[in-house]
Amino acid sequence: MADQIPFSFDVATVTDITNQIKQILESNFRDVLVEGEISNVSQSRNGHYYFTVKDDHAQLPCVVWRSTAQRMDVELSDGQQVILGGDIQVYAPHGRYQMIVRLVQQAGMGRLQQKFEELKNKLQKEGLFDDAHKKPLPPFPSNIGVITSSTGAAFHDIRSTFEQRWPLATLYLHHASVQGLNAAGELADAIQTLSEHPDIELLIIGRGGGSLEDLWPFNEEKVARAIYNCPIPIISAVGHEVDFSISDFVADARAATPTQAAMIAAPDINDLRMQIDDYAHGIEVHLKQKIDRYKEYVHRLGHSHALLKVQDRIVHMKRTVDTHQRTLHHLQQKIRLNKRAKLQEILHRLDRKNPNEPMERGFSRVWQGETWIRSREQFDDGSPLKVEWQDGEKTITP
Question: Which segments of 68-142 are extended strands (E)?
Answer without folding.
Answer: 81-91, 96-106
